[in-house]
Amino acid sequence: MVNENPIIVALDLNTAADAIVMATSVAPYVGAFKIGLGLLHGPGPGTIDALVQLGKPVFVDAKLHDIPSQVEAAAERLATHGARWVTAHVGGGFDMLEAAVEGLSRGAAQAEAGILGVSVLTSLDKFDLERIGIQRSPGELVGKMSKVATAAQCEGLICSAHEINTVKQAAPSLKTFVPGIRLGSHSDDQSRTATPSDALARGASYLVIGRPIIAASDPPAAANAIWHSLRSKE
Ligand code: C5P
């Protein structure tokens, strides 16, 4: 039985106003709000402050990836807006992740905040990796990245449902944040997908869900149905 709501709704909308309206309407059925690159590079980080006012944790999917000093500065600034979680690519390396953790904790002051390592995007499969010269499978890469993320004191890792077990074995204390959640066969641009209950059964700590909720004809009803389906599972 699931008690705490593990659904993080990805508010991938065009304007801050649209994001706030969506967040308000689905708030009773989700545990947290996520904003990504579209809102951060459009309306900007003020969107975080507005979402924080709605009373749920805000996940800032900034996907930081630069030299450590720049990532440290960005993480610190995002934390001052009230980000509960900020993402940074594990591919940026150990020193960059450590700098992100340092910047975030300074910006958050006493508030709870954590860096989440982005492992292998759920839109990529083995063939995409081969094309950019990486011969390892997504699973192998995620295992290695888990060890780096945990050593750098990240709170969690973003991975597909298919790699949760690998993360748990490589770094048992890392929480897993799982995008690529789909209710049926329609996968949009995602490759490594799972249903909400399957991802939870595999041990996901949180489910990151965008279009299955925000592009539904009735987003609150869609979010409610997913939350209901998770609560009714043993
Ligand atoms: O609409 P959909 O459910 O595919 O949205 C998934 C969300 O999770 C998007 O906001 C996307 O940026 C994010 N994400 C992802 N894969 C990752 C990390 C984040 O799809 N590896």
The gyration radius over C-alpha positions equals 17 Å
Order of strands, main sheet, comes to 1-2-3-4-5-6-7-8
Largest sheet: 8 strands, parallel, barrel
- What amount of the residues lies in strands? 15-25%
Low-confidence stretches: none
Percent of residues in helices = 40-55%
Q: Please state the overall shape, judged from the principal axes of the Cα atoms.
A: globular
**Heterogens:** cytidine-5'-monophosphate
- Give the rounded overall mean pLDDT: 94
Topology pattern, helix = H, strand = E: EHEHHEHEHEHHEHEHEHH
Tell me which CATH architecture applies here: Alpha-Beta Barrel
The CATH top-level class label: Alpha Beta
Please give a structural write-up:
By secondary structure, the protein is an alpha/beta fold. The chain has a single domain (7-231), classed as TIM Barrel, CATH 3.20.20.70. The protein contains eleven helices and eight strands. Helix 4 (68-80) packs parallel to helix 5 and helix 7 crosses helix 8. The radius of gyration is 17 Å and the shape is globular. The mean pLDDT is 94. The protein binds cytidine-5'-monophosphate. Cytidine-5'-monophosphate is lined by residues 10, 12, 36, 61, 118, 121-122, 158, 179-181, 188, 190, 208-212.
How would you describe this structure in keywords?
234 residues, 8-stranded parallel beta barrel, alpha/beta, binds cytidine-5'-monophosphate, TIM Barrel
